[in-house]
Amino acid sequence: MSSTHTDESLPLLSAPADGVPDLVDTPHALAAAVESLAAGTGPVAVDAERASGIRYGNRAFLIQLRRRGAGTVLIDPEALPDLSSVDEALRDVEWILHASTQDLPCLAERGMTPDALFDTEVAARLLGYERFGLAAVVGETLGVRLAKEHSNVDWSTRPLPRDWLNYAALDVELLIPVREVLVEQLTDSGKAEFARQEFIHLLSFEPAVYSEPWRRVNGFGAVRSRRAMARVRSMWNLRDRLARQQDEAPGRILRDKVMVELAGARVKKPEDLRRIPGVSGMTKAALYRWYKAITDADALPEAQLPSRRSPDSPPQPQVDRAVIKTRLEAMKPVVNQIAQQLDIPHDLAVAPRLVKALAAGSTVGTPTEVERFLREHGAREWQIELTARALSEAGARADAAVTAAG
Questions:
Q1: N or C: where does the chain have the smaller number of CB atoms within 10 Å of the terminal CB?
Q2: SS3 300
Q3: Cα–Cα–Cα angle for 179, 44, 160, nearest 5°?
Q4: CA–CA distance, 230 with 297 (Å, rounded to integer)
């Protein structure tokens, strides 16, 4: 968990109050930790450290927990991949996480899923905090500064250095008192119910799954022809296979920028690839692999080239783009005004993608119809109550203006 963006004038908290616990990396130690966590009281602070820029995938390489009566527990999920016993010990216990959508998927991979949660980042955003990284929230609520020098280290390293474990233990040490301050602030501001609904919604969070993930390559918008798209697809598939085999982050094998450059390059022989920055130092074997991926794509018949339109793209608008633009120009300020009145980010008042989808319909609809649309697409009841009527009325005004301009 990142601990960047904090007030350097605050007193530094550099060591856990109870010291750094031993790493739990044996079944015997895990059983003792589970017993201790089950006997603890109140919510449990949870965090996970990943190595997504270094290793393949997003799996956790360290899991930290802290509960009153149990202290801090640091678990090595590489040595203990099945943590369902920890999950069982924490049934019906509220989990405190910061930026929970980052950690929930990798915790679930290890058999850990909460029944209830409190997200300190979401709470801070609802409260209008200008900065809501962990360190900023800790500074704002508790008036201390977290050590941050190990926020971007390679957590797949074994053995884990003691000072790294010190950093990891600090990340969960303060989550329980931070939560207590945030709960009081949410109650005082009348936003406790907003937070409750947000946290329930987060329990069902699942990361986005794309049917054609190769289209997610950074810079893909510059790839114009279907033949060039086929090259990207072929190179992406090769890179993903190599990354999985080598347990290495795909970008360390071939950067997205290089892939996009190769998609449009003139290539008649493997050595031609060396003209692209980022390729020049490759071995002959590596050059041939990427050359073959490119030429395989070049040899495809027209019918097997990818479509210009992604299957994951939203449906084509039902109305003229000028109408959509007019509607958005009326609807966005309404959402912004509601957000400003509540002192929350506009994307928390209602997701921008839902506003865009409403604007692209044949009609924005009546307040009841907008309520139904928002509910069907995952908006929470507090968001619907605040925005449905305003969005409907703004859409109606925009359509009237289009008709009048006619």
A1: C
A2: coil
A3: 110
A4: 5
> Tell me, what's the pLDDT at 381?
98
Q: Distance between CA atoms of 151 and 23, rounded to whole angstroms?
A: 18
- CA-nearest of 40, 118, 113 to 72 is 40
CA-based nearest residue to 144, from 172, 187, 174: 174
Ranges of each domain in the chain: 12-202, 213-304, 321-405
- The answer for residues whose C-beta is within 8 angstroms of residue 196's C-beta and 6 or more apart is none
Per-residue pLDDT of 118-147, as tens digits, reads: 999 999 999 999 999 999 999 999 999 887
CATH fold match for the domains 213-304 and 321-405: yes
Distance of alpha carbon 26 from alpha carbon 28, whole angstroms: 5
Instruction: Quickly list H helices, 20-147.
Output: 27-39, 84-89, 100-109, 120-126, 134-142
- pLDDT of residue 3 exceeding 70, the answer is no
* 376 in Cβ contact with 388 (< 8 Å): no
Give the model's pLDDT for residue 313. 87
Buried b / exposed e over 36-50, threshold 16 CB at 10 Å, is bbbebeebbbbbbbb
Please give the full DSSP string across 168-217, using - where no structure is assigned: HHHHHHTHHHHHHHHHHHHHHTT-HHHHHHHHHHHTT------SSGGGGS
CATH number for region 321-405: 1.10.150.80
pTM beyond 0.85: the answer is: yes
Q: Which fold has domain 12-202?
A: Nucleotidyltransferase; domain 5 (3.30.420)
Mapped onto helix, strand or coil, the DSSP state of residue 77 is coil
Q: What is the distance between the alpha carbons of residues 144 and 139, in angstroms, rounded to a whole number?
A: 5
